[in-house]
Design goal:
This protein has about 110 residues and is an alpha+beta fold. The chain has two helices and four strands; from the N terminus they run βαβββα. The mean pLDDT is about 90.
C-alpha cells in the first residue's frame, strides 16, 4: 500500500525568459504549489495527500502543469493544467477528496 492516497506533483521548472516554451514557474506554478500545500492541510488531508515540487514535466506549453498519482490514477496519473488557485481548489475538492477527475482542467497529452 502506498504511503499516501494521492501524490500531486507541480512542475516548478524555470527556463530563461526568452525561451519560446516558457516555463511553469513563469506562469505562477510556485504560488499554486504553495496554495495546494496550504489548502490540503486546511482540508485535513495531511498524511493522505502529498504535495511536491517536480522538475520539468515537459508540458510547460500547457502549464502550469501538475500530475496526480493515486491508486485509481496509476500507472500514468492524471495530468492537469492549473492556472488559478480556484483550479487548484477544484482538483483538491473534486479529485483528491471526491475521487472524480476534473475534466475541464485535464491536459490534452500527445500519445
Amino acid at each position: 500500500m502506498p504511503p499516501f492516497q494521492h501524490h500531486i506533483f507541480f512542475c516548478t521548472n524555470e527556463r530563461s525568459a526568452d525561451d519560446p516554451k516558457g516555463s511553469c514557474v513563469q506562469r505562477g506554478a510556485t504560488a499554486l504549489h504553495a496554495h495546494a500545500k496550504e489548502a490540503c492541510f486546511k482540508a485535513g488531508l495531511k498524511g493522505a495527500v502529498r504535495v511536491n515540487k517536480a522538475g520539468c514535466l515537459d508540458t510547460c506549453a500547457q502549464g502550469p502543469a501538475a500530475v496526480v498519482y493515486g491508486e485509481k490514477d496509476l500507472p500514468s496519473g492524471v495530468w492537469y493544467a492549473l492556472n488559478t488557485k480556484e483550479d487548484v481548489d477544484d482538483v483538491i475538492q473534486q479529485h483528491l477528496i471526491g475521487g472524480n477527475v476534473v475534466e475541464r482542467l485535464r491536459m490534452k497529452l500527445k500519445g
